[in-house]
Amino acid sequence: MLMEKLEGVPLSTQWFTMDNKARVKIMKQIVDLEKQFMSIRSPASGGLYYRKDLTQLQRAISLAVQDDQRGPSEIVVGPTAQHEWWYKERARLEINRGPWIDFRSAFEAPAKRELEFCKQFGRPRLHVERYLRQLYEFKEAQPATHIQLLLDFLRLIPHLEVPSDHRFSRPTLRHPDFSPNNILINSSNDISGIIDWQHAVILPLCLCAGIPDYFQNWGDPLSERLAKPEVHMPDNFNQLNKFEQATVQETIRKRLVHFYYAALTMNQMPDHFDALREENLMLRAKLFKRSSAPWEGDSLSLEYAIFQAFTNWPMHFDDMEPASAVTCPMQFSENEIQRILKDHDREQEIMEELSEMRDLIGIDALGWVPDDEQLGRSKDVVRQIKAGLAEHCNTELERTALQSHFPFDDHDEDG
């Protein structure tokens, strides 16, 4: 593979130490760049290729038609290159990998892929998130459970369509991981490049809309209102300890970048802004993501999203004419509702604990640290956390969780 060297350093090396003025400058550039590649017109959803790199058996749709003398564009939309479509035995499945010319085809294809995977290759396994395994007493999840949920989701799809000529179903290109690790900046805080496009995919706008994970702050009341945050430190800031000061600074940072991403998007990409603010469109996106995630022992995430669709039924949104009333194909008994809510709340509580531990350790969700100095500090904190938990282990389940499933130990990825 031949690659061009880009100048600059990852934004992640500067992101937490730069001042707020520099962060605002970065956010303006991020939205401007997103506008450029999200505005590219595409005839279908799928992956981007040079025509010469696809076989005659692989479908290809020209990205744009040039003048008659030059013929069709050499850049085409072909099968998706997303990692989850080729992960493990999924590469062997005979399935529709795209391109998809309408909303429904793109919406249902990943669920059909996972359905075939679970039927052919699914096996009982522990939850992919090690910190949740104790909650389920280390019992293996069954692929049959996930198969049924995927079938339930596919039953909803005919009632969740967005017309292919609607602005929210326009095929849209987005970066697959628009995070500080993949954004390069120079010494003037100008973005010099965006890397790691290899799993990029074109999808209907409402299925890929949203504030990138590293820049969103949903759940914070101020951010939910899209109110402009206060950037001045509180009067008692100097009397706070270092941890409390860091917490205040981090809260301001999260609110600031969330607000500027949303405000700039509202001004420059109103269709994208309208989509990310529409609850029932974002619930479609959530259903899409949950049903397309490779099954690795987690079925509650999809079940909870289906339950949310049931509670929001008929899932209309402001920019679409309501269809005739149809009863939700999925129904839940009172006992099922209580069980789903209880399990979801317990998982959320445990995942919040895990997030707090990551913050203390100084790592992101993937375990990355900015430099070797932070790596040493992070390892020390991990040892302290594990030692503290060991002192309070009172049951065999707790001891098993700490000894064999502690999330910050090295593990075999297939274990």
UniProtKB/TrEMBL annotation:
<feature type="domain" description="Aminoglycoside phosphotransferase">
    <location>
        <begin position="125"/>
        <end position="202"/>
    </location>
</feature>
<protein>
    <recommendedName>
        <fullName>Aminoglycoside phosphotransferase domain-containing protein</fullName>
    </recommendedName>
</protein>
<dbReference type="Pfam" id="PF01636">
    <property type="entry name" value="APH"/>
</dbReference>
<dbReference type="InterPro" id="IPR002575">
    <property type="entry name" value="Aminoglycoside_PTrfase"/>
</dbReference>
<dbReference type="InterPro" id="IPR051035">
    <property type="entry name" value="Mito_inheritance_9"/>
</dbReference>
<dbReference type="GO" id="GO:0005739">
    <property type="term" value="C:mitochondrion"/>
</dbReference>
<dbReference type="InterPro" id="IPR011009">
    <property type="entry name" value="Kinase-like_dom_sf"/>
</dbReference>
